[in-house]
Structure formats: C-alpha cells, structure tokens
C-alpha cells in the first residue's frame, strides 16, 4: 500500500487551507452560525466554484469532480481545523451517496448535478436521534428499530397511489437532531413501512416547502453543526429508487463507512489545530518570569497530546485506504479530540474557562461528535464484533448490549 498523497491531493489540501484561513477564522465562524442558514452561503458557493467541494466525490457524469474518499477526507481534515459551518457533511457525505446508490437514473440525473454545483443541499433524516445506529456505526442496522420498528413513533410511511415507478407515498412522524434539517433543500427521510410483521425501512425524498413539512432549528451544543427537529404531517414523498425491495440497510452501512473515515479526518484536523493553538499560547504566556511551556509538567502533557493526535491521524489515514477500519479510526479521533480540547481549556488557564474563548468551540465540537456518532466505547464494540474478537455475536452482545445501552441513554 502506497500511503503517500499525490500532488493533486496535496494541492486540494493547500488550496483549501489558504482559502479557509482568509474566510473562516473564529470570528467569521461565530458570525456564520448566527445566520438563518447556520453557515456562510457566500463561502459555500466559493468553495463549490473554485474547488468543487460539494461534488468532490461525485462522478463526473453528474457534474462532480470524480475524486474519491481520499480527497474528501483530506478536504474534511482542513474544514475540521477551522470548524467550518457548512452543509458538506449532511449533503456530500450522507445524502448524496444514498441518492447515487439507490436512486433511479432519473433521480440521479435530476438531483446530483445540483448537489455537485452547490445549489442544492440535502440531508439524511432519521428518527429518534438514531443516526449512528442507522449508519451501522454503533450496531447492526438491519433491524430498523431506529426508524420506528413498526410501532408507534419514528417516521411511518404508507403507499397512497401508484403514480410513477415507486408509487406515491405519505409520511407521518418526527425526526429530531437532523443535521442541517432546517436549511436543506432536500430531505432523504428514513421511514418504516409494512407494519410490524412485514415491516421494512425505506428512504424517501421530500423537498423543502412540501405541504405538511415543519422544520424547527434546535439549540445545539455545537453551533457549527446545526440541527433541527423535522415533523412530517401527512407529507407526500417520493420513494428513493424504483421499488420497495432496495437494500436500504446495506446502502446506509456503506455511507456509514465513508462517513466514519471522513469524520475521523475532520476530528483529527480539529484536534491538531487545537493543539497548535495551545502550544502557541504556552510559549507566549509567562508565569514567574518564564513561559509556562518551559515547565516540565506542561511539556509532558503536551507531549502526550501530540502522540495521541499523531496516532489518531495515522488511524484516519489508514482508514482512507481501508474503510472497514473507519469505526476504529473514528473512535480514536473522537477520543483524541476530546482529550486535546479538554487540555486546551485547562492550559489556557483563566481565559480558557470563559465560554466566549475560541477553545470552547473545539471543546463543544468534541462533545457533540461523541453524542451524535458515538460514544467511543460503542464504536469500538461494534468494530470488535465485526472483526470477530468476541468469538460470536452473542458474546459481543453481552459486552456491548444492555449495559452499554443503559450507559448511553442514562
């Protein structure tokens, strides 16, 4: 395996870093998240026009750049450094791959070019805050319990007509914690249909502005990753794909593997920058007539952080070439980000504890990532189960099942 990046890949990294350094500093980030959309629409258009960021991993046949996971991960490492508020994760990493994998030719031709040029944003709406479960990051997603499981709750779908290849469907229910749910132009909604005995989970397309669709932006711990509560009150929807026998869990798991790699790279970028800022601070901050960075205790703490961040970067880069290890890489990266940002707050001293300090942007991103896509121990349990380390599914459930579930939900 050749782990070296190509000249073109390094150019993507360099160009993106230079642009974000000019347009997305801490002050710009704080201003962007307070807009109606939750991000700088002008910067998003610039990223689409100059770099092709929204369509970086989409095929050229649909207006994309035609790159792959490597380039997308490198780009997200750079956006993670500055905590860029953008529709990149929801649109390019979650929704677009599902449309490409399951959509009809007509759906792909109608939607993906607009996604690639940045004019259409999209997101994946999953009920009950079960995004990590739906993507197969923290458990087997074939059961469909995260989409309602045939019981009351979640989002339910029923066929109401036969117009078109997939027929006409009506959705009813609610999905909370939908990334960019208040601003996305297209919602890919996971809904349960068929009742309890013959139930299955399908994906549906819902356009912004559809009658009966109510979207409310929620207050989130991490302002740079906006979330919304989406209510569907007898909303007409289009089935994603030609028929209702599509392998939805398989497509979601594939998207989850890519998402894990990209999120790991993004977390590594954030942890790396938080560490750099902390090192700069301890070099400049003086106590007892000398820089606090010269104290041995501080050096040891920073050295430990450096090793942890470098290990997380290595894991993320390995996962780029072997997406099957994405869950482990994500666990390593989220843990590194959590530790680094907590230490950053501590080492910044009194100013680090003020809520307005930039260090808290990164600290809140670390906490939010673990809540949305983890927790870390569940990511590792899932990876261990997939690798057969427990000898069988039953053994793994004893380790990662009810006890872990209580720990997560308590």
UniProtKB/TrEMBL annotation:
Annotated Gene3D superfamilies: Acyl-CoA dehydrogenase/oxidase, N-terminal domain, Butyryl-CoA Dehydrogenase, subunit A, domain 2, Butyryl-CoA Dehydrogenase, subunit A, domain 3
Domain of life: Bacteria
Start and end residues of each Acyl-CoA dehydrogenase/oxidase N-terminal domain: 7-118
GO molecular function terms attached to this record: oxidoreductase activity
Cofactor(s) needed: FAD
Acyl-CoA dehydrogenase/oxidase C-terminal domain mapped to chain residues: 261-381
Cited SUPFAM superfamilies: Acyl-CoA dehydrogenase C-terminal domain-like, Acyl-CoA dehydrogenase NM domain-like
Keywords for this protein: FAD, Flavoprotein, Oxidoreductase
InterPro entries reported for this sequence: Acyl-CoA_Oxase/DH_mid-dom_sf, AcylCo_DH-like_C, AcylCo_DH/oxidase_C, AcylCoA_DH/ox_N, AcylCoA_DH/ox_N_sf, AcylCoA_DH/oxidase_NM_dom_sf
Pfam family, any one: Acyl-CoA_dh_N
EC annotation from Swiss-Prot or TrEMBL: 1.-.-.-
Family (UniProt): Belongs to the acyl-CoA dehydrogenase family.
Entry protein name: Acyl-CoA dehydrogenase family protein
Native source organism of the sequence: Streptomyces albidochromogenes
